[in-house]
Design a protein that fits this description.
Layout: E1 5-8, H1 15-28, E2 31-34, H2 40-48, E3 55-56, E4 64-68, E5 84-90, E6 103-106, H3 112-119, H4 121-125, H5 128-141, H6 152-165, H7 170-179, H8 189-194, E7 197-202, E8 205-214, H9 218-221, H10 224-238, E9 242-249, E10 254-260, H11 263-270, E11 278-282, H12 287-290, H13 292-298
Parallel strand pairs: 1-2, 1-4, 2-3, 4-5, 5-6, 8-9
Antiparallel strand pairs: 7-8, 9-10, 10-11
This protein binds manganese (II) ion (MN).
Length: 299
Protein backbone atom coordinates (compact mmCIF):
# COMPACT_ATOMS: atom_id res chain seq x y z
CA UNK A 1 0.00 0.00 0.00
CA UNK A 2 2.79 2.37 0.89
CA UNK A 3 3.84 2.70 -2.72
CA UNK A 4 0.38 3.33 -4.11
CA UNK A 5 0.08 6.51 -6.14
CA UNK A 6 -3.18 8.44 -5.75
CA UNK A 7 -4.51 10.67 -8.50
CA UNK A 8 -6.56 13.49 -7.04
CA UNK A 9 -8.37 16.55 -8.39
CA UNK A 10 -9.30 19.78 -6.62
CA UNK A 11 -11.65 20.45 -3.72
CA UNK A 12 -15.37 20.87 -4.56
CA UNK A 13 -14.80 18.30 -7.30
CA UNK A 14 -16.26 19.00 -10.73
CA UNK A 15 -16.59 16.63 -13.66
CA UNK A 16 -13.23 17.49 -15.27
CA UNK A 17 -11.38 16.96 -12.00
CA UNK A 18 -13.02 13.61 -11.20
CA UNK A 19 -12.85 12.25 -14.76
CA UNK A 20 -9.19 13.28 -15.12
CA UNK A 21 -8.32 11.40 -11.93
CA UNK A 22 -10.20 8.29 -13.10
CA UNK A 23 -8.73 8.27 -16.61
CA UNK A 24 -5.13 9.02 -15.65
CA UNK A 25 -5.24 6.45 -12.84
CA UNK A 26 -6.58 3.80 -15.21
CA UNK A 27 -3.89 4.47 -17.79
CA UNK A 28 -1.07 4.41 -15.21
CA UNK A 29 -2.38 1.72 -12.87
CA UNK A 30 -2.75 4.27 -10.05
CA UNK A 31 -5.69 4.80 -7.68
CA UNK A 32 -8.22 7.55 -8.48
CA UNK A 33 -9.60 9.48 -5.51
CA UNK A 34 -11.64 12.63 -4.87
CA UNK A 35 -11.62 15.35 -2.25
CA UNK A 36 -15.21 15.20 -1.06
CA UNK A 37 -18.50 14.17 -2.65
CA UNK A 38 -19.06 14.42 -6.40
CA UNK A 39 -21.84 16.63 -7.83
CA UNK A 40 -24.97 15.52 -9.77
CA UNK A 41 -23.40 16.38 -13.10
CA UNK A 42 -20.42 14.12 -12.47
CA UNK A 43 -22.73 11.37 -11.18
CA UNK A 44 -24.72 11.62 -14.42
CA UNK A 45 -21.59 11.26 -16.58
CA UNK A 46 -20.12 8.34 -14.58
CA UNK A 47 -23.49 6.57 -14.56
CA UNK A 48 -23.97 7.00 -18.30
CA UNK A 49 -20.73 5.15 -19.02
CA UNK A 50 -21.03 2.67 -16.14
CA UNK A 51 -17.97 3.88 -14.24
CA UNK A 52 -17.92 3.68 -10.41
CA UNK A 53 -17.45 6.75 -8.19
CA UNK A 54 -13.84 6.96 -6.86
CA UNK A 55 -13.22 6.75 -3.13
CA UNK A 56 -12.25 9.70 -0.97
CA UNK A 57 -8.56 10.50 -0.47
CA UNK A 58 -8.99 10.93 3.27
CA UNK A 59 -5.75 12.36 4.63
CA UNK A 60 -2.87 13.26 2.31
CA UNK A 61 -0.17 12.67 4.88
CA UNK A 62 2.59 10.31 3.73
CA UNK A 63 0.91 9.57 0.39
CA UNK A 64 2.26 9.82 -3.14
CA UNK A 65 -0.02 12.11 -5.13
CA UNK A 66 -0.56 13.12 -8.72
CA UNK A 67 -2.49 16.41 -8.81
CA UNK A 68 -4.82 16.77 -11.77
CA UNK A 69 -6.85 19.83 -12.79
CA UNK A 70 -5.34 22.08 -10.09
CA UNK A 71 -2.01 23.11 -8.61
CA UNK A 72 -2.75 25.82 -6.00
CA UNK A 73 -2.21 24.65 -2.44
CA UNK A 74 -5.58 26.16 -1.44
CA UNK A 75 -7.36 23.70 -3.76
CA UNK A 76 -5.09 20.74 -3.02
CA UNK A 77 -5.59 18.29 -0.14
CA UNK A 78 -4.96 19.61 3.39
CA UNK A 79 -1.50 18.68 4.65
CA UNK A 80 -0.21 18.64 1.07
CA UNK A 81 3.18 19.61 2.52
CA UNK A 82 3.27 16.23 4.31
CA UNK A 83 2.55 14.32 1.09
CA UNK A 84 4.86 13.58 -1.83
CA UNK A 85 3.63 15.23 -5.02
CA UNK A 86 5.04 13.24 -7.94
CA UNK A 87 3.34 14.90 -10.90
CA UNK A 88 0.89 17.61 -12.00
CA UNK A 89 -1.37 17.65 -15.07
CA UNK A 90 -3.41 20.85 -15.32
CA UNK A 91 -4.85 23.68 -17.39
CA UNK A 92 -4.83 26.45 -14.76
CA UNK A 93 -2.30 29.17 -13.99
CA UNK A 94 0.63 27.90 -11.99
CA UNK A 95 0.89 28.83 -8.34
CA UNK A 96 2.95 25.93 -7.07
CA UNK A 97 6.13 25.80 -5.04
CA UNK A 98 7.92 22.55 -4.42
CA UNK A 99 11.36 21.70 -3.12
CA UNK A 100 12.03 18.96 -5.70
CA UNK A 101 11.90 18.81 -9.49
CA UNK A 102 8.77 16.94 -10.58
CA UNK A 103 6.92 16.27 -13.85
CA UNK A 104 4.52 19.12 -14.63
CA UNK A 105 2.34 19.19 -17.73
CA UNK A 106 0.24 22.33 -18.17
CA UNK A 107 -1.48 23.46 -21.36
CA UNK A 108 -3.81 26.40 -21.97
CA UNK A 109 -6.75 24.30 -23.21
CA UNK A 110 -10.37 24.13 -22.08
CA UNK A 111 -10.11 21.07 -19.85
CA UNK A 112 -7.64 18.68 -18.28
CA UNK A 113 -9.62 15.99 -20.11
CA UNK A 114 -8.46 17.56 -23.40
CA UNK A 115 -4.81 17.17 -22.37
CA UNK A 116 -5.28 13.52 -21.37
CA UNK A 117 -7.18 12.72 -24.57
CA UNK A 118 -4.27 14.12 -26.60
CA UNK A 119 -1.49 12.50 -24.56
CA UNK A 120 -3.08 9.05 -24.47
CA UNK A 121 -4.81 8.93 -27.84
CA UNK A 122 -4.16 5.22 -28.42
CA UNK A 123 -5.42 4.10 -25.01
CA UNK A 124 -8.53 6.30 -25.30
CA UNK A 125 -9.30 5.04 -28.82
CA UNK A 126 -9.67 1.51 -27.43
CA UNK A 127 -11.88 2.46 -24.50
CA UNK A 128 -15.41 3.69 -25.22
CA UNK A 129 -16.21 4.53 -21.58
CA UNK A 130 -12.97 6.45 -21.16
CA UNK A 131 -13.72 8.50 -24.30
CA UNK A 132 -17.26 9.17 -23.06
CA UNK A 133 -16.05 10.36 -19.66
CA UNK A 134 -13.45 12.64 -21.24
CA UNK A 135 -16.04 14.11 -23.62
CA UNK A 136 -18.42 14.80 -20.72
CA UNK A 137 -15.62 16.52 -18.78
CA UNK A 138 -14.49 18.57 -21.78
CA UNK A 139 -18.04 19.78 -22.52
CA UNK A 140 -18.60 20.56 -18.86
CA UNK A 141 -15.45 22.66 -18.43
CA UNK A 142 -15.87 24.51 -21.74
CA UNK A 143 -19.63 25.00 -21.18
CA UNK A 144 -20.28 23.24 -24.48
CA UNK A 145 -17.59 25.38 -26.20
CA UNK A 146 -19.23 28.65 -25.07
CA UNK A 147 -16.59 29.49 -22.47
CA UNK A 148 -13.75 31.76 -23.66
CA UNK A 149 -11.37 29.13 -22.30
CA UNK A 150 -12.35 26.95 -25.28
CA UNK A 151 -9.64 26.38 -27.90
CA UNK A 152 -9.76 24.92 -31.40
CA UNK A 153 -8.00 21.88 -29.99
CA UNK A 154 -10.89 21.26 -27.60
CA UNK A 155 -13.31 21.11 -30.52
CA UNK A 156 -11.12 18.75 -32.54
CA UNK A 157 -10.55 16.47 -29.55
CA UNK A 158 -14.29 16.50 -28.69
CA UNK A 159 -15.21 15.35 -32.21
CA UNK A 160 -12.76 12.44 -31.94
CA UNK A 161 -13.98 11.47 -28.48
CA UNK A 162 -17.63 11.57 -29.62
CA UNK A 163 -16.83 9.17 -32.45
CA UNK A 164 -15.16 6.69 -30.09
CA UNK A 165 -17.89 7.02 -27.44
CA UNK A 166 -20.74 6.65 -29.94
CA UNK A 167 -22.21 10.10 -29.21
CA UNK A 168 -23.93 11.38 -32.38
CA UNK A 169 -24.92 14.86 -31.22
CA UNK A 170 -22.28 16.61 -29.10
CA UNK A 171 -24.45 19.68 -28.36
CA UNK A 172 -27.38 17.59 -27.09
CA UNK A 173 -25.10 15.45 -24.96
CA UNK A 174 -23.49 18.61 -23.56
CA UNK A 175 -26.85 20.09 -22.57
CA UNK A 176 -27.84 16.79 -20.90
CA UNK A 177 -24.59 16.93 -18.90
CA UNK A 178 -25.12 20.57 -17.90
CA UNK A 179 -28.79 20.08 -17.02
CA UNK A 180 -27.91 17.35 -14.54
CA UNK A 181 -26.97 19.91 -11.91
CA UNK A 182 -28.67 23.05 -13.21
CA UNK A 183 -31.78 22.73 -11.07
CA UNK A 184 -31.10 24.79 -7.96
CA UNK A 185 -34.68 25.34 -6.79
CA UNK A 186 -34.77 22.47 -4.30
CA UNK A 187 -31.24 22.95 -2.90
CA UNK A 188 -30.17 24.84 0.21
CA UNK A 189 -28.41 28.07 -0.89
CA UNK A 190 -25.24 26.95 0.90
CA UNK A 191 -25.00 23.94 -1.41
CA UNK A 192 -25.62 26.09 -4.49
CA UNK A 193 -22.86 28.59 -3.64
CA UNK A 194 -20.32 26.05 -2.37
CA UNK A 195 -20.89 23.28 -4.94
CA UNK A 196 -18.19 24.70 -7.21
CA UNK A 197 -16.20 26.96 -4.94
CA UNK A 198 -12.51 27.81 -4.93
CA UNK A 199 -10.30 29.57 -2.42
CA UNK A 200 -7.56 31.85 -3.71
CA UNK A 201 -4.68 33.69 -2.12
CA UNK A 202 -4.31 37.08 -3.82
CA UNK A 203 -1.30 38.91 -2.36
CA UNK A 204 -2.02 37.47 1.06
CA UNK A 205 -5.78 38.09 0.91
CA UNK A 206 -8.19 35.17 1.25
CA UNK A 207 -10.72 35.34 -1.57
CA UNK A 208 -13.42 32.75 -2.31
CA UNK A 209 -15.14 32.49 -5.69
CA UNK A 210 -18.08 30.17 -6.29
CA UNK A 211 -19.85 29.53 -9.57
CA UNK A 212 -23.08 27.89 -10.61
CA UNK A 213 -24.47 27.33 -14.07
CA UNK A 214 -28.18 27.54 -14.73
CA UNK A 215 -30.38 27.40 -17.82
CA UNK A 216 -32.54 30.26 -16.50
CA UNK A 217 -30.96 33.07 -14.47
CA UNK A 218 -34.36 33.84 -12.87
CA UNK A 219 -33.84 30.74 -10.71
CA UNK A 220 -30.99 32.67 -9.08
CA UNK A 221 -32.69 36.10 -9.06
CA UNK A 222 -35.52 34.52 -7.07
CA UNK A 223 -33.04 33.63 -4.37
CA UNK A 224 -30.82 36.74 -4.46
CA UNK A 225 -31.46 37.73 -0.83
CA UNK A 226 -30.58 34.21 0.35
CA UNK A 227 -27.35 34.38 -1.67
CA UNK A 228 -26.40 37.73 -0.15
CA UNK A 229 -27.18 36.62 3.42
CA UNK A 230 -25.07 33.53 2.93
CA UNK A 231 -22.10 35.42 1.43
CA UNK A 232 -22.08 38.05 4.19
CA UNK A 233 -22.39 35.40 6.87
CA UNK A 234 -19.57 33.27 5.42
CA UNK A 235 -17.30 36.31 4.97
CA UNK A 236 -17.58 37.15 8.65
CA UNK A 237 -17.21 33.60 9.89
CA UNK A 238 -14.30 32.44 7.74
CA UNK A 239 -12.27 35.63 7.51
CA UNK A 240 -12.58 36.21 3.77
CA UNK A 241 -11.42 39.55 2.39
CA UNK A 242 -13.85 39.06 -0.48
CA UNK A 243 -16.43 36.53 -1.64
CA UNK A 244 -17.87 36.36 -5.12
CA UNK A 245 -20.65 34.13 -6.43
CA UNK A 246 -20.81 33.84 -10.21
CA UNK A 247 -24.25 32.74 -11.44
CA UNK A 248 -23.87 31.87 -15.10
CA UNK A 249 -26.79 31.54 -17.51
CA UNK A 250 -25.46 29.12 -20.15
CA UNK A 251 -28.25 29.96 -22.61
CA UNK A 252 -28.03 33.79 -22.31
CA UNK A 253 -24.23 33.50 -22.11
CA UNK A 254 -23.55 35.87 -19.26
CA UNK A 255 -23.33 35.95 -15.48
CA UNK A 256 -24.79 37.78 -12.50
CA UNK A 257 -21.96 38.43 -10.02
CA UNK A 258 -22.91 38.61 -6.34
CA UNK A 259 -20.27 39.78 -3.92
CA UNK A 260 -19.42 40.51 -0.31
CA UNK A 261 -16.43 42.80 0.06
CA UNK A 262 -14.99 46.02 -1.26
CA UNK A 263 -17.31 47.51 -3.90
CA UNK A 264 -14.54 49.73 -5.30
CA UNK A 265 -12.39 46.68 -6.00
CA UNK A 266 -15.26 45.01 -7.85
CA UNK A 267 -15.92 48.11 -9.94
CA UNK A 268 -12.26 48.42 -10.80
CA UNK A 269 -11.93 44.73 -11.63
CA UNK A 270 -14.92 44.65 -13.96
CA UNK A 271 -14.61 48.25 -15.14
CA UNK A 272 -18.26 49.05 -14.51
CA UNK A 273 -20.66 50.57 -12.01
CA UNK A 274 -21.94 48.02 -9.59
CA UNK A 275 -24.90 47.96 -7.22
CA UNK A 276 -24.47 47.07 -3.59
CA UNK A 277 -25.14 43.40 -4.20
CA UNK A 278 -24.61 42.29 -7.76
CA UNK A 279 -24.08 43.09 -11.41
CA UNK A 280 -24.87 41.33 -14.71
CA UNK A 281 -21.88 40.96 -17.03
CA UNK A 282 -22.76 39.96 -20.57
CA UNK A 283 -20.51 37.29 -22.06
CA UNK A 284 -18.93 36.35 -18.73
CA UNK A 285 -18.79 32.54 -18.63
CA UNK A 286 -15.41 31.67 -17.14
CA UNK A 287 -14.27 32.13 -13.56
CA UNK A 288 -10.75 31.17 -14.57
CA UNK A 289 -10.40 33.55 -17.48
CA UNK A 290 -12.80 36.40 -16.75
CA UNK A 291 -12.96 36.63 -12.95
CA UNK A 292 -9.80 35.29 -11.29
CA UNK A 293 -7.24 37.38 -13.28
CA UNK A 294 -9.08 40.71 -12.87
CA UNK A 295 -9.67 40.19 -9.15
CA UNK A 296 -6.10 39.03 -8.66
CA UNK A 297 -4.93 42.25 -10.34
CA UNK A 298 -6.92 44.53 -8.02
CA UNK A 299 -5.28 43.05 -4.92
MN1 LIG B 1 -10.75 21.65 -15.37
Amino acid sequence: MGDDVYVVGHKSPDTDTVVSAIVYAKIKGYTPVTQGAINEETAFVLDKFGVPVPGDLGGAEGKKLVLVDHNEASQAPDNIDKAEVVEIIDHHKMNFNYPDPIAIHVEPVGSTATILAKLYKDEVAKDKAMAGLLLGALLSDTVIFKSPTTTEEDKVVAAELAKIAGIDDIETFGIDVKKAKANISDKPIKDVVLADFKDFDFAGNKVGIGQTEVVDINDVYNRASEVMDFLNDLKGKEGYEMLIFVATDIIKEGSELYYAGDKAKMEKAFNTTIGDKSVWIDGLMSRKKQVVPVIDKTF
